Each structure stands twice: as C-alpha cells, then as structure tokens.
Amino acid sequence: MKIGFTCYPTHGGSGVIATELGKLLAERGHEIHFITYDMPFRLGGFKQNIFYHEVEVSRYSLFKYPPYDLTLASRMAQVAKLYELDLLHVHYAVPHAVSAFLAKQMVGDHLKVVTTLHGTDITVLGEDPTLHNIICFGMKQSDAVTAVSESLKKQTQELFRADQEIERIYNFVDQRTYHPRNVRYLRDNYVCPDEKLIIHISNFRAVKRPHDVIKVFDKIQKQIPARLLLVGQGPEWSSVHELVQSLHLHDKVNFLGRQDDVAQFMSIADLLVLPSAKESFGLVALEAMACGVPTVGANIGGIPEVVIHGETGYLAELGDVDNMANDAIKILKDDAMHQLFVQNGLHRVDQEFRADRIVDQYEALYKRVLGEK
Ligand code: GMT
Q1: I need a labelling partner for 165 at 20 to 30 A (CA). Which of 115, 195, 246, 348 fits?
Q2: Helix-then-strand count for the chain, H and E
C-alpha cells in the first residue's frame, strides 16, 4: 500500500505513534509518505520505503493567520496524485481530518482517509464551541476513525454522535527500543545503591499535574531514601522548579530537560509517577512498563486500560497525592511486590501492546477501507 501520514511532528505521543507506525509499515514493504511541517523527530536518518514531504506555509503579508490547514490539504493532494497514494492516515483530528477531506475532494474518491483520535483533539478541542462542528464533520467524512483507548472512544461517542463508528486500536511500543536495559552505570550517576529512583516524563503542561509529582515525591523521600528524575520541558517547568526549591528538594531532584532516548532513563528507574488530569492513553506508562517500570498515577481516562491497578501499578483518585505516595512507598519497600509488578507489566506488554499485534490491526483496517480481502 502507499500511505500518506500526517501528524504533529514535534515531541508528543501522537507524533511518536504516527512515526513508529509509519516506520513499521515501511519495514513490511509499504510505501510511507510523511506529509508534515517538520521532520518527525523519531524518523531519524534514511529509511527504506519512507518519504518526507514538508508542508511550507505561505507567509504572505495580508494573512494575519497563515493558512496551514489549506496548505496541508494542497500538499496532501499533490503528494497523493504524484505518488498515487491509496490512503491518508491522519493523527490528531484538528485540523488534519479536515485537510485530508479537502485533499480527497481534490484527488478523487479512491483516496481513502483514516483518522486516529489521540486525546485532547476530542477531550479539550471537541468541547470548544468554535471547533466542535468541524471536528464532527472531519470524523464523519473519514472512511474510518480510530481511538487509542476505549475511554477515548466512549468520550467521543458521548460528545459527538453515539452512532459514529470508531474502532479502538491501542497504542503500541516497539520492544526493540523499549525493554529492560542493563544500564547500571547510568543509574549510578543519579542514585546511591540504597536509594530508589522515581521518574516523571512529560511535556510539563498543567494537564500533567507536575506539581503533584513533586508533592508525591516529597512524601516518598520522607519515608525512604529516594531521588527524582524529571524528563521533558514545558510551560510549568519554572513553577515546578520553584516548588522543588521551596520544599528544599533541589539535591534530590534532577531536571534532565528534553531527551531523545528516554528508554535508557526509564530502564534505570524503579517507578514512574503519572498523576495527569487528562490522559486518553498514557503512552509514557506503556513505555515504562516495557522497560520494566511500574506506574503510580491517576485513575483517569485511558490510564486504567494501560496500568492495571494492583497488578502493574497503583491508581488513585485525581489529585490524591497522599494515596499515590503511600502506594509508591508500598511498591518501593517490597522487593517481591516490585518484581511481581515488573513481570506482570512485561507480560501485559507482550499480550496486549506488542507492536506487530497493533500494526496488524491497522493493516487490516486499511485493507478493509480499501475494499481488499
Ligand atoms: O492530546 C494531547 O494532549 C496530545 C497528544 C500527544 O500528541 O501527545 O497526547 C495524547 O495522545 C497520546 C498518544 O496517543 C496519549 O498517550 C496521551 O494520553 C494523549 N494525551 C492526553 O489525552 C492529554
């Protein structure tokens, strides 16, 4: 198949999934064309069967707002015609589903459109009255719509039309990259042998509740020797830094900033903390699980579909930092329980979230949309 992929190419789970899916499909012999405003950050160097087409938006002085959606549609149509694409798979509904619809109008009905919903395209923007109707239209015009969790599927159907057909296809993890690694030398840079290492990885937006991470860690380190690694950057970064200072935790917290190879940092951690207010899936919890790291987090959105409470981690009510800290201490103090959660997690990744299993599901969907057997 010849497939066009559009996603947000910078850091973020939807871009990660789109890029990794494109790479794996290319490995299976499909021709994959990324149509994005920048090189997807996980794409790396030259890869067989993968093409990159930049979307360059006109900066004409009359425009107060550059017409990205239209330029994207036009580029999608151009690439689809030139390379005879079979379908466009767009990740994140806004504006990609609508741009793909326009491209299809320009190219012809044979060009199919698959839209994957990732999270805030529904849970935040779907509630925005200025975008609600156009998101609904984009989904309706797609030949297939997928959601990355049962929770997101349900929320979408509640918010839009109960009869909107949505296939739940979980996110996945490539175990060639995400697996427990023996990187003791790296761990030794951050903790002494008797200390536990907690990790939080996010884009430090308010929705990730990074202040809760610090509050949970503060309670943990009062009970057991521990340190915290913070990976990522974002708008809340400075205020998190201030909170760390005010709690006198600066000696125990390492701010690592944005990192490309997060798997190595996950591999050295004992526990991931994920207290988000919204999380349609929680890719970071899956990646941690694949690296042998249990999660303590909030029982919201799609997180309970990834982290099984009492088996691969613990989930508490949103904002309940006391319970999150107590659960974390429980896991960290009990080596047998920690090991059991690690093993349960690795097994769960194998059973449910293996890359080849999920790529099979997307491939089957494409075939169905294209009317192939
Ligand atoms: O929806 C967003 O906020 C952005 C998006 C992204 O690009 O990272 O995150 C969503 O998609 C990820 C990949 O499917 C999920 O793992 C995240 O849970 C989801 N974020 C939210 O729902 C807040």
Answers
A1: 348
A2: 15, 13
